[in-house]
Amino acid sequence: MKPAFPFATRRLMMGGLLTLLAACTGAPARQTMDQHGEIERVEAYLNTSRGLQASFVQTWPDGGKGQGMMRYDPGRLRLDYTTPGAMKLVAASGHLLFVDHRRDSVTRMSLGRQPLGLLLNQPVHLGGQIAVTAVQHGANSLQVSLARADSESQGILTLGFSDIGGKLSLLVIEMTDVERQHIRLDLTDTTVSGQPWPDTLFTLSPDN
Protein backbone atom coordinates (compact mmCIF):
# COMPACT_ATOMS: atom_id res chain seq x y z
CA MET A 1 0.00 0.00 0.00
CA LYS A 2 1.27 3.48 -0.84
CA PRO A 3 2.51 5.75 1.96
CA ALA A 4 0.00 8.35 3.02
CA PHE A 5 2.36 11.21 3.75
CA PRO A 6 1.40 13.67 1.02
CA PHE A 7 4.77 15.22 0.32
CA ALA A 8 7.14 12.27 0.53
CA THR A 9 7.93 8.97 -1.10
CA ARG A 10 8.10 5.48 0.37
CA ARG A 11 11.53 6.40 1.72
CA LEU A 12 9.83 8.45 4.45
CA MET A 13 8.29 5.30 5.89
CA MET A 14 11.73 3.71 5.77
CA GLY A 15 13.21 6.53 7.84
CA GLY A 16 14.43 8.97 5.16
CA LEU A 17 12.53 12.21 5.78
CA LEU A 18 11.25 14.08 2.76
CA THR A 19 13.75 12.91 0.18
CA LEU A 20 11.24 13.87 -2.44
CA LEU A 21 11.34 17.48 -1.31
CA ALA A 22 14.83 18.16 -2.63
CA ALA A 23 13.18 19.89 -5.49
CA CYS A 24 14.06 21.50 -8.77
CA THR A 25 15.62 24.94 -9.07
CA GLY A 26 13.74 27.81 -10.66
CA ALA A 27 14.65 31.42 -11.39
CA PRO A 28 12.53 34.28 -10.06
CA ALA A 29 10.14 35.55 -12.71
CA ARG A 30 10.46 39.06 -14.09
CA GLN A 31 7.19 40.58 -13.02
CA THR A 32 5.08 42.81 -15.19
CA MET A 33 2.69 45.25 -13.60
CA ASP A 34 -0.19 42.85 -14.30
CA GLN A 35 1.69 39.96 -12.71
CA HIS A 36 2.49 42.05 -9.66
CA GLY A 37 -1.22 42.65 -9.22
CA GLU A 38 -1.97 38.92 -9.52
CA ILE A 39 0.69 38.11 -6.94
CA GLU A 40 -0.86 40.58 -4.53
CA ARG A 41 -4.24 38.89 -5.01
CA VAL A 42 -2.78 35.46 -4.20
CA GLU A 43 -1.01 36.89 -1.16
CA ALA A 44 -4.25 38.42 0.09
CA TYR A 45 -6.14 35.14 -0.48
CA LEU A 46 -3.65 33.09 1.53
CA ASN A 47 -3.61 35.63 4.35
CA THR A 48 -7.40 35.98 4.69
CA SER A 49 -8.91 32.55 3.87
CA ARG A 50 -9.91 31.62 7.40
CA GLY A 51 -12.01 28.50 7.76
CA LEU A 52 -11.12 27.08 4.34
CA GLN A 53 -12.30 23.51 3.78
CA ALA A 54 -12.05 21.29 0.71
CA SER A 55 -12.17 17.66 -0.33
CA PHE A 56 -8.86 16.56 -1.82
CA VAL A 57 -7.56 13.85 -4.11
CA GLN A 58 -3.82 13.33 -3.83
CA THR A 59 -1.79 11.93 -6.73
CA TRP A 60 1.65 10.36 -6.24
CA PRO A 61 4.31 10.31 -8.95
CA ASP A 62 3.32 6.79 -10.04
CA GLY A 63 -0.35 7.77 -10.40
CA GLY A 64 -1.56 6.26 -7.13
CA LYS A 65 -4.36 8.08 -5.33
CA GLY A 66 -5.38 9.09 -1.82
CA GLN A 67 -8.23 11.27 -0.65
CA GLY A 68 -9.76 13.02 2.32
CA MET A 69 -10.58 16.44 3.77
CA MET A 70 -8.32 19.51 3.95
CA ARG A 71 -8.72 22.36 6.42
CA TYR A 72 -6.70 25.58 6.19
CA ASP A 73 -6.30 28.74 8.20
CA PRO A 74 -3.54 31.24 7.40
CA GLY A 75 -0.38 29.67 8.76
CA ARG A 76 -1.78 26.19 9.41
CA LEU A 77 -3.06 23.17 7.50
CA ARG A 78 -4.66 19.82 8.29
CA LEU A 79 -5.26 16.82 6.03
CA ASP A 80 -7.49 13.98 7.26
CA TYR A 81 -7.28 10.92 5.02
CA THR A 82 -10.07 8.47 4.36
CA THR A 83 -8.15 6.64 1.61
CA PRO A 84 -5.91 4.62 1.67
CA GLY A 85 -6.57 4.55 5.42
CA ALA A 86 -6.96 6.49 8.67
CA MET A 87 -4.15 9.04 8.67
CA LYS A 88 -3.67 12.73 9.33
CA LEU A 89 -1.18 15.48 8.65
CA VAL A 90 -1.06 18.66 10.73
CA ALA A 91 1.25 21.56 9.85
CA ALA A 92 1.45 24.65 12.05
CA SER A 93 3.94 26.87 13.88
CA GLY A 94 6.77 25.85 11.55
CA HIS A 95 6.43 22.13 12.23
CA LEU A 96 4.63 19.12 10.80
CA LEU A 97 3.09 16.06 12.39
CA PHE A 98 2.06 12.99 10.39
CA VAL A 99 0.17 10.15 12.07
CA ASP A 100 -0.52 6.81 10.39
CA HIS A 101 -3.02 5.04 12.61
CA ARG A 102 -2.73 1.88 10.54
CA ARG A 103 0.89 1.44 11.56
CA ASP A 104 0.79 3.31 14.89
CA SER A 105 3.54 5.53 13.49
CA VAL A 106 4.21 9.21 14.17
CA THR A 107 6.55 11.47 12.17
CA ARG A 108 7.57 14.98 13.19
CA MET A 109 9.66 17.45 11.23
CA SER A 110 10.43 21.10 10.70
CA LEU A 111 8.93 22.97 7.74
CA GLY A 112 11.74 25.52 7.74
CA ARG A 113 13.37 24.36 4.49
CA GLN A 114 10.45 22.53 2.88
CA PRO A 115 8.17 23.77 0.07
CA LEU A 116 5.03 23.24 2.15
CA GLY A 117 6.35 25.86 4.53
CA LEU A 118 5.99 28.46 1.77
CA LEU A 119 2.23 28.07 1.99
CA LEU A 120 2.22 28.38 5.77
CA ASN A 121 4.38 31.45 6.38
CA GLN A 122 2.38 33.88 8.46
CA PRO A 123 1.81 36.33 7.07
CA VAL A 124 2.55 35.19 3.52
CA HIS A 125 4.61 37.75 1.64
CA LEU A 126 5.35 36.82 -1.96
CA GLY A 127 8.61 38.56 -2.66
CA GLY A 128 11.74 38.91 -0.61
CA GLN A 129 12.26 35.57 1.13
CA ILE A 130 9.65 33.84 -1.04
CA ALA A 131 10.52 34.11 -4.74
CA VAL A 132 7.77 33.93 -7.35
CA THR A 133 9.27 31.82 -10.12
CA ALA A 134 6.28 31.78 -12.50
CA VAL A 135 2.89 33.43 -12.96
CA GLN A 136 0.38 32.09 -15.48
CA HIS A 137 -3.07 33.57 -15.99
CA GLY A 138 -5.48 31.70 -18.25
CA ALA A 139 -9.19 31.84 -18.91
CA ASN A 140 -10.75 31.76 -15.43
CA SER A 141 -7.52 30.43 -13.89
CA LEU A 142 -4.37 31.66 -12.17
CA GLN A 143 -1.24 29.71 -11.29
CA VAL A 144 1.82 30.81 -9.32
CA SER A 145 5.02 28.90 -8.52
CA LEU A 146 7.05 29.70 -5.42
CA ALA A 147 10.49 28.91 -4.00
CA ARG A 148 12.68 30.16 -1.18
CA ALA A 149 14.78 32.97 -2.57
CA ASP A 150 17.92 31.91 -0.71
CA SER A 151 17.64 28.19 -1.48
CA GLU A 152 15.49 27.49 -4.52
CA SER A 153 16.90 23.97 -4.77
CA GLN A 154 14.89 23.12 -1.65
CA GLY A 155 11.71 22.89 -3.68
CA ILE A 156 9.07 24.42 -5.91
CA LEU A 157 5.50 24.89 -4.70
CA THR A 158 2.81 25.60 -7.30
CA LEU A 159 -0.66 26.83 -6.41
CA GLY A 160 -3.53 26.77 -8.90
CA PHE A 161 -6.69 28.83 -8.50
CA SER A 162 -9.95 29.32 -10.29
CA ASP A 163 -10.39 33.01 -11.06
CA ILE A 164 -13.99 33.81 -11.86
CA GLY A 165 -15.45 37.25 -11.58
CA GLY A 166 -12.27 38.45 -9.89
CA LYS A 167 -12.68 35.91 -7.09
CA LEU A 168 -9.95 33.34 -6.40
CA SER A 169 -10.54 29.82 -5.12
CA LEU A 170 -7.72 27.37 -4.41
CA LEU A 171 -7.90 24.28 -6.62
CA VAL A 172 -4.41 22.73 -6.76
CA ILE A 173 -1.37 22.35 -4.51
CA GLU A 174 1.58 20.77 -6.30
CA MET A 175 5.26 20.15 -5.61
CA THR A 176 7.91 19.11 -8.09
CA ASP A 177 11.09 17.30 -7.09
CA VAL A 178 14.60 17.41 -8.50
CA GLU A 179 13.77 14.47 -10.79
CA ARG A 180 10.71 16.32 -12.13
CA GLN A 181 8.31 14.07 -10.25
CA HIS A 182 5.07 15.63 -9.08
CA ILE A 183 2.93 15.23 -5.98
CA ARG A 184 -0.40 16.96 -6.39
CA LEU A 185 -3.52 17.71 -4.38
CA ASP A 186 -6.64 18.52 -6.40
CA LEU A 187 -9.30 20.29 -4.36
CA THR A 188 -13.07 20.28 -4.84
CA ASP A 189 -16.02 21.77 -2.96
CA THR A 190 -13.78 24.49 -1.56
CA THR A 191 -15.52 26.79 0.91
CA VAL A 192 -14.23 29.65 3.07
CA SER A 193 -16.35 30.47 6.12
CA GLY A 194 -14.33 33.51 7.21
CA GLN A 195 -14.16 32.11 10.75
CA PRO A 196 -10.95 30.39 11.90
CA TRP A 197 -10.98 26.72 12.77
CA PRO A 198 -10.66 25.77 16.46
CA ASP A 199 -7.04 25.75 17.60
CA THR A 200 -7.46 22.15 18.73
CA LEU A 201 -7.55 21.01 15.08
CA PHE A 202 -3.95 22.14 14.63
CA THR A 203 -2.41 20.88 17.85
CA LEU A 204 0.79 19.01 17.04
CA SER A 205 -0.26 15.99 19.07
CA PRO A 206 -0.99 12.47 17.80
CA ASP A 207 -4.17 12.43 19.87
CA ASN A 208 -5.91 15.53 18.54
UniProtKB/TrEMBL annotation:
<dbReference type="Pfam" id="PF03548">
    <property type="entry name" value="LolA"/>
</dbReference>
<feature type="signal peptide">
    <location>
        <begin position="1"/>
        <end position="29"/>
    </location>
</feature>
<protein>
    <submittedName>
        <fullName>Outer membrane lipoprotein carrier protein LolA</fullName>
    </submittedName>
</protein>
<dbReference type="InterPro" id="IPR004564">
    <property type="entry name" value="OM_lipoprot_carrier_LolA-like"/>
</dbReference>
<keyword id="KW-0732">Signal</keyword>
<dbReference type="InterPro" id="IPR029046">
    <property type="entry name" value="LolA/LolB/LppX"/>
</dbReference>
<keyword id="KW-0449">Lipoprotein</keyword>
